[in-house]
Q: What sequence folds into this?
């Protein structure tokens, strides 16, 4: 029985209750007061002390994300330019998405961890044991989603635990509990898949034809994601990779190539050292 | 710098983007002008923020890649020289054993200092995981340290150096089976020199991951070149008997062979790296360090310096020996630092990561049907009808 998250971005209102609930329950320190100017996103990214992150994407007609400037948008509206279908929220829209660790079926961090600190727990989720982690930091570049991070203060790697402690007591994770719009749903992954497919069908029927699921049916080396998403634009708009690759997917070939190179260079060296003896 | 993402584009990468670009081209007036300045959708990033996290490794790690590499290369040459190099290579073997021990002692220190929790370094020894090159490397380094210690002790007892030949410890050390250990040390040298390349390649960092199977062999070639250079450099002051000259010429030949291997692998790596991803190694500070320092100074120049004498079969001048060996070592150091730092830059570049994770079969993106529905309004009307039909 694998438990996970279904995050439906069409229901997200950007209240950040998930971020707050996560910080409170997991007693994570604050990250300071940085004003980024990136729409309402001052959290910026997932990290060692941020296990839920609400992304805000402002899209004006003809523009793909919040990095565009208002003047361009107005010029486009004046000229009657439209780049997007009326789909979700029409042509000028504000997308929000609560991002989280994906708890991949094949997790790069877990495969990379040399201490065995990162495990898959009885709920099928990827969990870092803080009493084992020695902060080597190799999991950090091994995550294809840029989730896990080594804390500067504490020296260990941290990420979403999917509220392992709450799950053990039969409670849903803090973020899902706090979400006021059910944008974050927690449950048995098979049931969530069914719910999510139904939701996509409903959205399509209502004219939100660009809705699709991210992390369910794609054949990628990271496998299905135990925290998957309903999106209405390209993955990279939400800072998600189009095709996440498991870093260790072809590691056997890499070992083999290096071993063969070792044999070749070793043989060349041996021949060089031997050739001299015959001459002498 | 911040504008990179907006200027970037991946032409016609998806049907959707192709459609949008066509639509944009058809759009008129002011909008079209604006469009050209800020291309849309294709190459969209999230405020140009990184999509993945770069490693937090400090300078200890690339420096270890170098030191461990020298140790590995020296061990490979020294081990083989002990087995088949004959009497002539006694001095080579001796120096190789001492240098390998030095590298094997410094390396763990560099690695442990860099840990977030150094006092927990031994947690690495809880498990062995083939999926983690870092775990494999831990065990290779540990074994390499033990074997190098044994070999150096054996050598010291033979040399009556530090360890007295006839002391009980010296006698014990001389009992060690040095020939089998030489073979083991050579094999572990290959492991130590090659695993670091695999370690970098098995990450999500675009620059390292695209180098794929080549990075391990490439690191190994540099390892062997640096090992040969270290042995050539430490032999330069020895008085030259004809036998010694022959041994030295052979080490120089190993250096040239590994230098040629380095160049070949670098050309292949460069050829298979797309421009967006390879940028940090082609321009900027680390690009210059890499191109001028590592490739030019560390690979091409030493080979060019050694080849004339080697082709004519003449003994190499002392100045050329020192210059070529120093350049190889400096180049090896530059290569390790440049590859690590450029990798960090490529991790920070969302465009590079998008290119790396783009457009494979089974990608997470709307189905062709959905893409058609997402296209501009003129098509959207038709599409919505289709969607309601399928209900």
A:
């Amino acid at each position: 029985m694998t438990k996970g998250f279904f995050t439906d971005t069409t229901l997200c209102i950007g209240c950040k209750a998930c971020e707050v609930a996560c910080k409170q329950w997991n007693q994570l320190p604050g990250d300071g007061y940085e004003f980024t100017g990136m729409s309402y996103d001052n959290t910026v990214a997932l990290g060692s002390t941020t296990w839920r992150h609400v992304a805000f994407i402002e899209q004006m007609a003809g523009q793909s994300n919040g990095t565009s400037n208002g003047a361009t948008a107005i010029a486009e509206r004046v000229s009657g330019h439209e780049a997007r279908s009326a789909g979700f929220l029409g042509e000028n829209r504000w997308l929000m998405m609560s991002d989280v660790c994906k708890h991949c079926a094949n997790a790069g961090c877990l495969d990379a961890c040399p201490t065995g600190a990162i495990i898959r727990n009885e709920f099928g989720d990827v969990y870092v044991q803080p009493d084992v982690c020695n902060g080597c930091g190799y999991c950090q570049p091994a995550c294809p989603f840029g989730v896990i991070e080594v804390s500067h203060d504490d020296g260990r790697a941290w990420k979403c635990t999917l509220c392992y402690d709450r799950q053990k007591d039969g409670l849903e994770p803090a973020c899902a509990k706090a979400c006021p719009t059910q944008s974050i749903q927690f449950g048995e992954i098979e049931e969530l898949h069914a719910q999510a497919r139904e939701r996509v069908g409903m959205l399509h029927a209502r004219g939100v034809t660009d809705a699709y699921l991210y992390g369910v049916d794609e054949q990628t080396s990271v496998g299905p994601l135990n925290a998957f998403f309903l999106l209405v634009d390209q993955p990279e708009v939400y800072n998600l990779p189009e095709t996440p690759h498991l870093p260790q997917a072809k590691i056997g070939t890499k070992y083999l190539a290096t071993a063969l190179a070792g044999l070749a260079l070793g043989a060349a060296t041996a021949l060089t050292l031997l050739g001299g003896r015959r001459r002498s | 710098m911040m504008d990179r993402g907006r200027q970037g584009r991946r032409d016609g990468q998806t049907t959707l983007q192709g459609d949008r670009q066509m639509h944009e081209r058809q759009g008129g007036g002011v909008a079209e002008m604006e469009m050209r300045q800020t291309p849309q959708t294709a190459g969209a990033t999230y405020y140009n923020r990184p999509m993945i996290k770069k490693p937090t490794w400090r300078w200890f790690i690339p420096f270890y890649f170098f030191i461990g590499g020298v140790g590995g290369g020296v061990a490979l040459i020294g081990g083989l020289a002990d087995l088949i190099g004959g009497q002539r290579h006694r001095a080579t073997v001796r120096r190789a054993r001492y240098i390998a021990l030095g590298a094997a002692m410094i390396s763990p220190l560099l690695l442990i200092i860099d840990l977030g929790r150094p006092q927990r370094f031994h947690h690495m020894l809880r498990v062995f995981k083939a999926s983690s090159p870092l775990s494999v490397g831990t065990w290779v380094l540990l074994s390499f340290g033990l074997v190098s210690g044994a070999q150096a002790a054996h050598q010291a007892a033979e040399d009556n150096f530090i360890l007295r030949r006839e002391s009980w410890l010296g006698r014990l050390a001389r009992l060690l089976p040095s020939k089998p250990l030489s073979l083991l040390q050579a094999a572990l040298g290959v492991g130590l020199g090659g695993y670091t390349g695999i370690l970098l390649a098995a990450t999500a960092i675009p620059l390292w991951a695209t180098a794929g199977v080549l990075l391990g062999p490439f690191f190994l070639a540099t390892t062997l070149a640096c090992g040969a250079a270290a042995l050539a450099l430490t032999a330069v002051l020895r008085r030259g008997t004809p036998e010694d000259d022959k041994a030295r010429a052979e080490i120089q030949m190993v250096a040239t062979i590994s230098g040629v291997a380095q160049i070949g692998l670098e050309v292949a790596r460069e050829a298979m790296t797309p421009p967006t991803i390879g940028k940090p190694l082609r321009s900027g500070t680390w690009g210059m360090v890499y191109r001028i320092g590592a490739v030019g100074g560390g690979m091409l120049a030493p080979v060019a310096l050694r080849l004339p004498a080697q082709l004519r079969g003449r003994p190499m001048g002392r100045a050329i020996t020192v210059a070529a060996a120093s350049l190889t070592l400096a180049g090896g150091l530059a290569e390790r630092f440049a590859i690590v730092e450029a990798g960090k830059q490529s991790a920070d570049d969302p465009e590079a990561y998008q290119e790396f994770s783009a457009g494979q079969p089974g990608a997470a993106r709307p189905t062709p049907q959905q893409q058609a529905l997402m296209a501009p309004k003129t098509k959207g009307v038709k599409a919505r009808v289709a969607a309601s039909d399928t209900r």
In short: Chain B has 17 helices and no strands. Confidence is low (pLDDT under 50) at residues 1-42, 368-391 of chain B. Chain B touches chain A through 125 residues (CB under 8 Å).
